[in-house]
Structures are given as structure tokens and as C-alpha cells.
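Recap quiz, item 2
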Amino acid sequence: MTAEAILHWGLLAAHGLLAIGLVFAAARLIRGPRAQDRVLAFDAVYLNAALQVVVFGMRAGQSGYLEAALVMTLLGFAGSSALAKFLMRGEVIE
Amino acid sequence: MTPFVAAVVVLLALFGAALAAAGAYGLLRLRSFYERAHPATLAATLGATSILLAALLFYSTSAGRLLPKALLLIVFIPLVNPVTTMLLARAALSRDRAKRRLAPVATGSADEDWLREADELVRAQAEAAKQPAVREDDGGA
């Protein structure tokens, strides 16, 4: 088995596992039941998506995808910490 | 790239992806918010580190020199994601307490069990701090 074949099939399987994780996290995002559950699920969704981008970059063989993943995690961190802050300080409770 | 290096890269990536899938399954499966806060960090720490180590190995061997881009992500993701989860857990705790102050009727949700346990823990710690002499005696005896 050549190195290319190992990389192709192995990284494809990693894609599949990460996609399963994305589907589970998206299901929790839709189901809720409360706002904090949704924010937690959003956290998992953007992290899994960034890891998908890293794996895709390995399949494409271009290291530029790592920067894309870095931007995704930075924006996701800003978003979810802002949401946590809002849940902490917001006046409305349910 | 030799097949051995490719196999190591694939194993690391598969391990990380499996951890991410397991964490998301826990997120879907567990009962209350405070339980669900735990598996979410599984993917963020060990899973992300493992996949990014695979990326570091892959790009470094194909470029022939160390590419430190992946190291940036290896430091950043496990450092920052648990911080968000902790912020979120504190926000959820304060929301649950405020909700109970406004409407002290139990609805039987799983979050309330955890909130009651946390309050009992806080009360026990406050009692223990109030009587340090008793605790010292216990420790001496």
C-alpha cells in the first residue's frame, strides 16, 4: 500500500467521523432545550468544522488551510464568549 | 513521504476525529447541561491536539522542514476552548439560581438536581469555614 492510498482513505475516514460529530452537535443545537445548551453545541460545531478544514487541507496538501482554521477558531471563540457574557449579564431570564 | 509516516499521520487524525465524534455523542446523550459541559472539551483538548499533531507531522515531512503554523493552533485551541466552557458554565449557574429565585417551583428538570447539589456543597463549605477549630481538632485526633 502506497503512502498516498493510506493518506487518502485514512483522512477520508477522519472526515466521516468529524462529520458524525458535526451532525450530533447540530442536533443538540436544534434541540436545545435552553440557551446555554445551544451555545455549548455551537462551540462544538465550530470546533468540528475547523478540524474538518484542517483535515481537508491535509488532503489537498496545502498548508494555507491551517490559517483558515485559525480564523475560524478565533471568530468562534469571540462569538461563544460574547454569548456566554450575554447569558451572564442579560436581564431576560427565559 | 514513506508509508510509515503516512500511517502515523492517519492514526493521529483518526484518533482525534474519533474523540471529536465521541464528545459530540456525549453532548447529545447526557442528561443535564452541567453533565454536557464535560464531553464538549474532549474534542477541544485531546482531539484537536491529536489532529493538529497529524497536520504538523504531515506538512513538516512534505516540506522537509518544521512548519510552525500548526503549533499556533495546538497552543490556541486547548487553551481557549475550556475557558469558554467555564464562562458558559458560570453563566448557566447564575441563570439557574436567578430562575429559582424568581420561580421557586421545581419543574423536575435534570439541571435542578445539579443546582441543588452545588448549593449543598457551598453550604457545607461555608459551615466548615465558620468553625475552623472543630476541623483542626478532627485532624489532630
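The mean pLDDT of chain B is 83.
Helices of chain B lie at 3-29, 33-63, 69-102, 110-130, 132-140.
End of item.
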